[in-house]
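Q: Give me the 3D complex with F7E.
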Amino acid sequence: MKVFLTGGRGMVGRAIQAHDRASEHQVLAPNSADLDLTHRETVMAILASEKPDIVIHSAGRVGGIQANMASPAAFLADNMDMGFNVVLAAREAGVPQVLNLGSSCMYPHDAPNPLHEESLGKGELEPTNEGYGLAKVAVARLCAFVSQERADLAYKTLIPCNLYGLNDKFDPKVSHLVPAIIRKVHEAKEQGADTVEIWGDGTARREFMFSEDLADGVWAAVDGFESLPGMMNIGLGYDYSINEYYTEAAKVIGWKGHFTHDLSKPTGMKQKLLDVSAQTRFGWTPKTTLQDGIAQTYLHFQDLLKRGDA
Ligand SMILES: NC(=O)C1=CN([C@@H]2O[C@H](COP(=O)(O)OP(=O)(O)OC[C@H]3O[C@@H](n4cnc5c(N)ncnc54)[C@H](OP(=O)(O)O)[C@@H]3O)[C@@H](O)[C@H]2O)C=CC1
Ligand SMILES: C[C@H]1O[C@H](OP(=O)(O)OP(=O)(O)OC[C@H]2O[C@@H](n3cnc4c(=O)[nH]c(N)nc43)[C@H](O)[C@@H]2O)[C@@H](O)[C@@H](O)C1=O
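A: Here is the predicted complex, encoded as structure tokens.
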């Protein structure tokens, strides 16, 4: 199949291209320098000329809780622009399939855990990432509406849990939890520090899946697209506390200090665990353990440091 991938230079996009299944397809993955997805005319023109069989939409303005709180307007506007441009250009070009990546931030702040697809749209979003979540909800709904109106087009959304892995963002200004922990614990070890600070009291819970597992799930969704639900959670089905993530990373990195808690820092949702029963029915399950995922990510981080890229 001819696959048009957006966000190919990002953490998830690189994992999608590095996956074995990618070699069975022709994958076009222009980066943001070649194709700015916020420019609708350019997006329209490229999809009309390339006429792919499927678009995998992985591009986005993405960042941790602190980045989302600092720039809600940009997270809303950029992700809305990119998503609307890609979906409407695909419809215009008659691209038969779109696989759109949403996020667990689409769920209402007080939705019961585990978060079931039926809870979508039934309440206020989490304030710390409302801009991003609103854009994700809107683009997912646009996919559903296009599929409703056009019997020849099937535009579907995968809703991933939190993700981490190689090529993640290690800059503390935009990092999600796991890359932030890896940098902080590594630096404590290198500097001989005996404390590392945790944001909040550490009792919040998160479900972080290794990005290579998500890439595997994306290819499974592409290959089984016909039977894929219009919106489907993709995750582990289990979570850990923030404190447990720090403890596991300290073990993998080999740092023996202790943790302090900065209660002034934002903590976001208390829990964000996805219901994975639809994913199980679809026939896919992730395989990387937290210990193994952190170990692979830490090795990659050390390589980045050696190259002066982190
Ligand atoms: N990371 C996570 O925890 C989660 C991520 N997701 C979703 O998964 C997808 C991938 O996330 P992830 O790989 O972590 O994000 P990254 O930030 O690593 O990658 C985002 C990609 O989007 C591209 N991009 C950003 N702006 C533009 C633009 N204007 N035009 C073209 N391309 C642009 C970037 O291109 P370039 O590199 O060239 O700048 C980059 O390749 C996103 O849709 C995200 O919302 C969902 C749940 C959790
Ligand atoms: C997936 C979805 O989820 C994202 O929201 P989030 O899960 O709240 O983001 P996060 O990974 O940055 O935080 C997770 C938790 O971890 C705690 N925490 C402790 N210590 C650090 C720390 O040092 N850094 C960070 N970032 N968090 C810390 C922090 O207090 C919070 O409780 C969206 O931004 C959005 O990107 C999105 O798509």
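A quick observation: The chain is about 40% helix and 15% strand.
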